[in-house]
Protein backbone atom coordinates (compact mmCIF):
# COMPACT_ATOMS: atom_id res chain seq x y z
CA UNK A 1 0.00 0.00 0.00
CA UNK A 2 2.84 2.34 0.93
CA UNK A 3 4.47 1.55 -2.40
CA UNK A 4 1.33 2.49 -4.26
CA UNK A 5 0.97 5.77 -2.38
CA UNK A 6 4.61 6.55 -3.10
CA UNK A 7 4.12 5.70 -6.79
CA UNK A 8 1.13 7.97 -6.94
CA UNK A 9 2.95 10.82 -5.21
CA UNK A 10 5.74 10.45 -7.76
CA UNK A 11 3.17 10.50 -10.56
CA UNK A 12 1.55 13.59 -9.09
CA UNK A 13 4.85 15.45 -9.01
CA UNK A 14 5.56 14.46 -12.60
CA UNK A 15 2.08 15.66 -13.53
CA UNK A 16 2.60 19.00 -11.77
CA UNK A 17 5.94 19.54 -13.45
CA UNK A 18 4.19 19.27 -16.79
CA UNK A 19 1.44 21.69 -15.76
CA UNK A 20 3.38 24.63 -17.26
CA UNK A 21 1.80 23.76 -20.51
CA UNK A 22 -1.67 25.23 -20.18
CA UNK A 23 -3.22 22.95 -22.76
CA UNK A 24 -1.71 19.85 -21.09
CA UNK A 25 -3.05 20.94 -17.69
CA UNK A 26 -6.50 21.44 -19.17
CA UNK A 27 -6.55 17.94 -20.69
CA UNK A 28 -5.41 16.43 -17.37
CA UNK A 29 -8.15 18.28 -15.54
CA UNK A 30 -10.87 16.71 -17.66
CA UNK A 31 -9.16 13.30 -17.46
CA UNK A 32 -9.18 13.48 -13.64
CA UNK A 33 -12.83 14.50 -13.71
CA UNK A 34 -13.67 11.40 -15.73
CA UNK A 35 -11.53 9.31 -13.39
CA UNK A 36 -13.39 10.64 -10.36
CA UNK A 37 -16.71 9.65 -11.89
CA UNK A 38 -15.34 6.21 -12.72
CA UNK A 39 -14.02 5.74 -9.20
CA UNK A 40 -17.40 6.56 -7.72
CA UNK A 41 -18.86 3.79 -9.83
CA UNK A 42 -15.95 1.56 -8.76
CA UNK A 43 -16.83 2.05 -5.10
CA UNK A 44 -20.32 0.78 -5.86
CA UNK A 45 -18.78 -2.20 -7.63
CA UNK A 46 -16.49 -2.75 -4.65
CA UNK A 47 -19.49 -3.14 -2.39
CA UNK A 48 -21.14 -5.69 -4.70
CA UNK A 49 -18.07 -7.65 -5.73
CA UNK A 50 -15.92 -8.71 -2.80
CA UNK A 51 -12.87 -10.73 -3.48
CA UNK A 52 -9.20 -10.78 -3.72
CA UNK A 53 -7.47 -8.87 -6.36
CA UNK A 54 -3.91 -8.81 -7.25
CA UNK A 55 -2.65 -5.98 -9.35
CA UNK A 56 -0.06 -6.67 -11.92
CA UNK A 57 2.94 -4.36 -11.64
CA UNK A 58 4.18 -5.18 -15.12
CA UNK A 59 1.35 -5.29 -17.68
CA UNK A 60 -1.53 -3.96 -15.59
CA UNK A 61 -3.56 -7.22 -15.81
CA UNK A 62 -5.28 -9.22 -13.03
CA UNK A 63 -3.91 -12.40 -11.57
CA UNK A 64 -5.34 -15.59 -13.08
CA UNK A 65 -8.56 -16.74 -11.53
CA UNK A 66 -9.69 -13.33 -10.31
CA UNK A 67 -13.27 -12.54 -11.39
CA UNK A 68 -13.43 -9.64 -13.93
CA UNK A 69 -15.85 -7.51 -11.91
CA UNK A 70 -14.33 -8.09 -8.45
CA UNK A 71 -12.51 -5.59 -6.38
CA UNK A 72 -10.44 -6.26 -3.33
CA UNK A 73 -11.76 -5.52 0.06
CA UNK A 74 -8.93 -3.33 1.22
CA UNK A 75 -8.46 -1.06 4.17
CA UNK A 76 -8.75 2.72 3.66
CA UNK A 77 -7.45 4.05 1.46
CA UNK A 78 -8.99 1.22 -0.61
CA UNK A 79 -7.83 0.04 -4.01
CA UNK A 80 -10.36 -0.17 -6.83
CA UNK A 81 -10.19 -1.18 -10.43
CA UNK A 82 -11.21 1.65 -12.71
CA UNK A 83 -11.76 -0.64 -15.63
CA UNK A 84 -13.89 -2.96 -13.55
CA UNK A 85 -16.08 -0.07 -12.65
CA UNK A 86 -16.41 1.10 -16.26
CA UNK A 87 -16.65 -2.31 -17.97
CA UNK A 88 -19.86 -4.21 -18.27
CA UNK A 89 -20.36 -7.84 -17.27
CA UNK A 90 -18.20 -10.21 -19.25
CA UNK A 91 -16.09 -7.46 -20.83
CA UNK A 92 -12.34 -7.72 -20.85
CA UNK A 93 -10.25 -5.13 -19.17
CA UNK A 94 -6.64 -4.28 -18.50
CA UNK A 95 -6.95 -4.66 -14.81
CA UNK A 96 -5.52 -1.22 -13.89
CA UNK A 97 -5.87 -0.72 -10.17
CA UNK A 98 -5.91 2.82 -8.71
CA UNK A 99 -5.95 3.64 -5.01
CA UNK A 100 -8.90 5.72 -3.85
CA UNK A 101 -6.65 8.60 -2.85
CA UNK A 102 -9.40 11.11 -3.49
CA UNK A 103 -10.52 10.65 0.08
CA UNK A 104 -7.04 11.25 1.52
CA UNK A 105 -4.91 14.28 2.46
CA UNK A 106 -2.80 13.63 -0.65
CA UNK A 107 -5.82 14.34 -2.78
CA UNK A 108 -6.55 17.58 -0.93
CA UNK A 109 -2.95 18.74 -1.46
CA UNK A 110 -3.09 17.79 -5.14
CA UNK A 111 -6.42 19.59 -5.54
CA UNK A 112 -4.98 22.76 -3.95
CA UNK A 113 -2.04 22.67 -6.31
CA UNK A 114 -4.19 22.20 -9.40
CA UNK A 115 -7.10 24.52 -8.58
CA UNK A 116 -5.49 27.29 -6.49
CA UNK A 117 -1.99 27.70 -7.85
CA UNK A 118 -1.87 29.86 -11.01
CA UNK A 119 -0.17 28.24 -13.93
CA UNK A 120 2.88 30.27 -14.87
CA UNK A 121 2.78 31.76 -18.36
CA UNK A 122 5.82 31.91 -20.58
CA UNK A 123 7.32 35.42 -20.69
CA UNK A 124 8.36 37.16 -23.84
CA UNK A 125 11.87 38.38 -23.69
CA UNK A 126 12.10 42.19 -23.35
CA UNK A 127 13.78 43.97 -26.22
CA UNK A 128 14.94 47.61 -26.28
CA UNK A 129 16.93 49.87 -28.54
CA UNK A 130 20.67 49.61 -28.49
CA UNK A 131 22.84 52.70 -28.14
CA UNK A 132 23.86 52.50 -31.78
CA UNK A 133 20.22 52.30 -32.90
CA UNK A 134 19.34 55.37 -30.80
CA UNK A 135 22.27 57.32 -32.22
CA UNK A 136 21.22 56.42 -35.76
CA UNK A 137 17.64 57.58 -35.09
CA UNK A 138 18.85 60.85 -33.56
CA UNK A 139 21.15 61.45 -36.53
CA UNK A 140 18.30 60.87 -38.99
CA UNK A 141 16.02 63.26 -37.08
CA UNK A 142 18.77 65.89 -37.08
CA UNK A 143 19.27 65.56 -40.84
CA UNK A 144 15.53 65.83 -41.51
CA UNK A 145 15.25 68.86 -39.23
CA UNK A 146 18.14 70.51 -41.04
CA UNK A 147 16.37 69.96 -44.35
CA UNK A 148 12.86 70.88 -43.25
CA UNK A 149 13.35 73.89 -40.95
CA UNK A 150 14.72 76.25 -43.64
CA UNK A 151 11.91 75.22 -45.98
CA UNK A 152 9.31 75.77 -43.24
CA UNK A 153 10.81 79.16 -42.39
CA UNK A 154 10.75 80.19 -46.03
CA UNK A 155 7.14 79.06 -46.43
CA UNK A 156 6.10 80.97 -43.29
CA UNK A 157 7.84 84.11 -44.51
CA UNK A 158 6.22 83.82 -47.93
CA UNK A 159 2.82 83.48 -46.28
CA UNK A 160 3.43 86.76 -44.42
CA UNK A 161 4.48 88.48 -47.63
CA UNK A 162 1.26 87.34 -49.25
CA UNK A 163 -0.71 88.58 -46.23
CA UNK A 164 0.97 91.99 -46.43
CA UNK A 165 0.18 92.30 -50.14
CA UNK A 166 -3.48 91.52 -49.46
CA UNK A 167 -3.69 94.04 -46.63
CA UNK A 168 -1.99 96.71 -48.74
CA UNK A 169 -4.50 96.16 -51.54
CA UNK A 170 -7.36 96.34 -49.03
CA UNK A 171 -6.08 99.64 -47.63
CA UNK A 172 -5.70 101.06 -51.12
CA UNK A 173 -9.20 99.91 -52.07
CA UNK A 174 -10.74 101.31 -48.86
CA UNK A 175 -9.14 104.72 -49.47
CA UNK A 176 -10.51 104.77 -53.02
CA UNK A 177 -14.02 104.00 -51.74
CA UNK A 178 -13.71 106.73 -49.13
CA UNK A 179 -12.63 109.22 -51.80
CA UNK A 180 -15.57 108.16 -53.98
CA UNK A 181 -18.02 108.91 -51.15
CA UNK A 182 -16.51 112.17 -49.88
CA UNK A 183 -14.58 113.47 -52.90
CA UNK A 184 -11.48 113.79 -50.73
CA UNK A 185 -8.88 111.51 -49.25
CA UNK A 186 -8.88 110.62 -45.54
CA UNK A 187 -6.96 113.47 -43.92
CA UNK A 188 -8.15 115.50 -40.96
CA UNK A 189 -8.88 119.19 -41.05
CA UNK A 190 -5.98 119.75 -38.66
CA UNK A 191 -3.63 118.18 -41.20
CA UNK A 192 -4.94 120.11 -44.18
CA UNK A 193 -4.63 123.40 -42.36
CA UNK A 194 -0.97 122.87 -41.45
CA UNK A 195 0.62 121.68 -44.69
CA UNK A 196 1.19 123.40 -48.03
CA UNK A 197 -0.54 122.30 -51.19
CA UNK A 198 1.03 118.91 -51.79
CA UNK A 199 0.88 115.20 -51.02
CA UNK A 200 1.20 113.75 -47.54
CA UNK A 201 2.90 110.60 -46.25
CA UNK A 202 1.61 109.01 -43.05
CA UNK A 203 4.94 107.72 -41.78
CA UNK A 204 6.53 106.76 -38.46
CA UNK A 205 5.57 109.69 -36.21
CA UNK A 206 2.52 109.51 -33.94
CA UNK A 207 0.95 112.97 -34.05
CA UNK A 208 -1.82 114.84 -32.32
CA UNK A 209 -4.17 117.57 -33.53
CA UNK A 210 -2.08 120.24 -31.79
CA UNK A 211 0.78 119.47 -34.17
CA UNK A 212 3.36 117.77 -31.95
CA UNK A 213 4.42 114.19 -32.57
CA UNK A 214 6.60 111.42 -31.18
CA UNK A 215 8.27 108.52 -32.91
CA UNK A 216 6.60 105.14 -32.98
CA UNK A 217 8.50 102.38 -31.19
CA UNK A 218 9.66 99.14 -32.76
CA UNK A 219 8.91 96.65 -30.00
CA UNK A 220 10.57 93.76 -31.81
CA UNK A 221 13.96 95.47 -32.01
CA UNK A 222 13.43 97.64 -28.92
CA UNK A 223 14.26 100.87 -30.68
CA UNK A 224 12.33 103.93 -31.89
CA UNK A 225 12.09 104.52 -35.63
CA UNK A 226 13.89 107.85 -35.36
CA UNK A 227 16.89 106.19 -33.70
CA UNK A 228 19.52 103.71 -34.88
CA UNK A 229 20.65 100.51 -33.23
CA UNK A 230 24.10 99.73 -34.64
CA UNK A 231 25.34 97.79 -36.34
CA UNK A 232 22.26 96.31 -37.94
CA UNK A 233 19.40 98.78 -37.60
CA UNK A 234 19.66 102.28 -39.14
CA UNK A 235 17.37 105.22 -38.59
CA UNK A 236 14.00 104.45 -40.21
CA UNK A 237 12.27 107.76 -39.65
CA UNK A 238 9.81 108.70 -42.40
CA UNK A 239 8.54 112.30 -42.24
CA UNK A 240 7.36 114.95 -44.71
CA UNK A 241 9.21 117.90 -43.24
CA UNK A 242 5.94 119.70 -42.53
CA UNK A 243 4.89 121.33 -39.26
CA UNK A 244 2.39 118.50 -38.92
CA UNK A 245 3.37 114.80 -38.94
CA UNK A 246 1.37 111.67 -38.31
CA UNK A 247 1.24 107.93 -38.98
CA UNK A 248 -1.58 105.85 -40.46
CA UNK A 249 -3.64 106.18 -37.25
CA UNK A 250 -5.38 109.17 -38.80
CA UNK A 251 -6.34 107.19 -41.89
CA UNK A 252 -7.61 104.28 -39.75
CA UNK A 253 -9.75 106.68 -37.71
CA UNK A 254 -11.60 107.57 -40.91
CA UNK A 255 -11.72 104.14 -42.62
CA UNK A 256 -12.77 102.25 -39.47
CA UNK A 257 -14.92 105.13 -38.15
CA UNK A 258 -13.15 105.03 -34.79
CA UNK A 259 -14.58 107.86 -32.71
CA UNK A 260 -12.24 107.10 -29.81
CA UNK A 261 -9.43 108.53 -31.94
CA UNK A 262 -9.42 112.29 -31.65
CA UNK A 263 -9.26 112.98 -35.40
CA UNK A 264 -12.66 111.33 -35.88
CA UNK A 265 -14.34 112.66 -32.77
CA UNK A 266 -18.11 112.84 -33.35
CA UNK A 267 -17.49 111.17 -36.78
CA UNK A 268 -15.74 114.31 -38.02
CA UNK A 269 -13.88 112.40 -40.75
CA UNK A 270 -16.66 109.90 -41.49
CA UNK A 271 -20.10 111.55 -41.13
CA UNK A 272 -21.80 108.61 -42.86
CA UNK A 273 -20.43 106.26 -40.18
CA UNK A 274 -19.36 103.80 -42.84
CA UNK A 275 -16.78 101.11 -42.26
CA UNK A 276 -14.52 100.97 -45.30
CA UNK A 277 -11.84 98.59 -44.13
CA UNK A 278 -12.06 95.10 -42.72
CA UNK A 279 -8.86 94.79 -40.70
CA UNK A 280 -7.78 92.52 -37.87
CA UNK A 281 -7.83 94.36 -34.56
CA UNK A 282 -5.47 93.33 -31.76
CA UNK A 283 -5.32 94.01 -28.02
CA UNK A 284 -1.88 95.60 -27.91
CA UNK A 285 0.18 98.22 -29.73
CA UNK A 286 2.99 96.08 -31.13
CA UNK A 287 1.68 93.06 -33.05
CA UNK A 288 0.29 92.77 -36.57
CA UNK A 289 -3.11 94.36 -37.13
CA UNK A 290 -4.83 97.50 -35.89
CA UNK A 291 -3.61 98.03 -32.33
CA UNK A 292 -5.10 99.78 -29.33
CA UNK A 293 -3.31 102.93 -30.42
CA UNK A 294 -5.11 102.81 -33.78
CA UNK A 295 -1.96 102.13 -35.82
CA UNK A 296 -2.20 99.46 -38.53
CA UNK A 297 0.94 97.28 -38.44
CA UNK A 298 2.15 94.80 -41.02
CA UNK A 299 2.80 91.06 -40.32
CA UNK A 300 6.27 91.96 -38.93
CA UNK A 301 4.96 94.60 -36.53
CA UNK A 302 5.93 97.76 -38.48
CA UNK A 303 3.44 100.49 -39.47
CA UNK A 304 2.11 100.55 -43.02
CA UNK A 305 3.28 103.70 -44.82
CA UNK A 306 0.47 105.49 -46.67
CA UNK A 307 0.79 108.43 -49.04
CA UNK A 308 -2.25 110.22 -50.52
CA UNK A 309 -2.69 112.84 -53.22
CA UNK A 310 -3.83 116.02 -51.51
CA UNK A 311 -3.21 118.50 -54.34
CA UNK A 312 -5.60 116.80 -56.76
CA UNK A 313 -3.19 116.02 -59.61
CA UNK A 314 -3.83 112.24 -59.44
CA UNK A 315 -0.16 111.66 -58.73
CA UNK A 316 1.49 110.70 -55.50
CA UNK A 317 4.91 111.66 -54.10
CA UNK A 318 6.03 109.49 -51.20
CA UNK A 319 8.35 111.01 -48.56
CA UNK A 320 10.83 108.11 -48.86
CA UNK A 321 10.61 106.96 -52.48
CA UNK A 322 10.77 110.54 -53.84
CA UNK A 323 14.47 110.63 -52.91
CA UNK A 324 17.05 110.39 -55.70
CA UNK A 325 19.27 108.27 -53.45
CA UNK A 326 16.52 105.64 -53.39
CA UNK A 327 14.64 105.80 -56.69
CA UNK A 328 17.03 107.30 -59.29
CA UNK A 329 18.38 104.81 -61.82
CA UNK A 330 22.06 105.50 -62.62
CA UNK A 331 22.23 107.08 -66.05
CA UNK A 332 18.47 106.63 -66.25
CA UNK A 333 17.53 110.27 -66.51
CA UNK A 334 14.16 110.97 -64.92
CA UNK A 335 13.14 107.35 -64.95
CA UNK A 336 13.12 105.75 -61.52
CA UNK A 337 12.86 102.28 -60.00
CA UNK A 338 9.48 100.51 -59.63
CA UNK A 339 7.82 102.63 -62.31
CA UNK A 340 8.40 106.01 -60.66
CA UNK A 341 9.39 109.11 -62.62
CA UNK A 342 10.88 112.49 -61.79
CA UNK A 343 8.85 115.39 -63.21
CA UNK A 344 10.98 118.30 -62.01
CA UNK A 345 14.16 118.79 -60.00
CA UNK A 346 15.85 116.59 -57.42
CA UNK A 347 13.95 114.37 -55.02
CA UNK A 348 10.64 114.57 -56.83
CA UNK A 349 10.07 110.98 -57.92
CA UNK A 350 6.39 110.12 -57.87
CA UNK A 351 3.88 107.48 -58.95
CA UNK A 352 1.27 108.00 -61.57
CA UNK A 353 -1.52 107.14 -59.11
CA UNK A 354 -3.25 108.97 -56.22
CA UNK A 355 -2.49 106.45 -53.41
CA UNK A 356 0.73 104.67 -52.41
CA UNK A 357 0.86 102.04 -49.65
CA UNK A 358 3.91 100.06 -48.66
CA UNK A 359 5.64 97.97 -45.99
CA UNK A 360 9.22 97.63 -44.74
CA UNK A 361 8.99 93.95 -45.66
CA UNK A 362 10.29 90.83 -43.86
CA UNK A 363 13.54 92.38 -42.61
CA UNK A 364 11.74 95.43 -41.18
CA UNK A 365 14.51 97.68 -42.45
CA UNK A 366 14.92 100.57 -44.88
CA UNK A 367 17.81 102.82 -45.83
CA UNK A 368 17.76 106.14 -47.68
CA UNK A 369 21.37 105.44 -48.65
CA UNK A 370 20.55 102.36 -50.72
CA UNK A 371 18.68 101.99 -53.99
CA UNK A 372 15.13 100.72 -54.02
CA UNK A 373 16.11 97.37 -55.52
CA UNK A 374 19.08 96.59 -53.28
CA UNK A 375 20.06 95.95 -49.67
CA UNK A 376 17.52 96.78 -46.99
CA UNK A 377 15.03 98.18 -49.51
CA UNK A 378 14.96 95.15 -51.77
CA UNK A 379 12.28 93.25 -49.85
CA UNK A 380 9.95 96.22 -49.31
CA UNK A 381 6.39 95.45 -50.40
CA UNK A 382 4.92 98.18 -52.65
CA UNK A 383 1.41 98.75 -53.95
CA UNK A 384 2.71 100.27 -57.21
CA UNK A 385 5.00 97.43 -58.32
Question: Explain this structure to me?
Answer:
It is a single chain. The protein is globular, with a radius of gyration of 51 Å. The chain has 385 residues and is of the alpha+beta class. It is built from eight helices and 14 strands. The chain folds into two domains: 115 residues, no CATH class; 223 residues, no CATH class. Strand 10 and strand 11 form a beta hairpin.
| Estimated share of beta-strand residues | 5-15%
Number of strands: 14
Shape: globular
Radius of gyration using CA atoms only: 51 Å
Structural class, from helix and strand content?
Answer: alpha+beta
Order of helices and strands: HHEEEHEHHHEEEEEHEEEHEE
Q: For the report, how would you describe the main beta sheet?
A: 4 strands, antiparallel
List the helices and strands and how they pair.
Elements: H1 2-17, H2 22-48, E1 50-51, E2 71-72, E3 79-81, H3 82-86, E4 97-99, H4 105-116, H5 131-182, H6 189-192, E5 200-202, E6 205-207, E7 213-215, E8 217-218, E9 223-224, H7 249-255, E10 289-290, E11 296-297, E12 305-308, H8 324-327, E13 355-359, E14 381-382
Parallel strand pairs: 1-2
Antiparallel strand pairs: 3-4, 5-12, 6-7, 8-9, 10-11, 12-13, 13-14
Can I get a quick summary?
The radius of gyration is 51 Å and the shape is globular. It has helices at 2-17, 22-48, 82-86, 105-116, 131-182, 189-192, 249-255, 324-327; strands at 50-51, 71-72, 79-81, 97-99, 200-202, 205-207, 213-215, 217-218, 223-224, 289-290, 296-297, 305-308, 355-359, 381-382. The chain has 385 residues and is of the alpha+beta class.
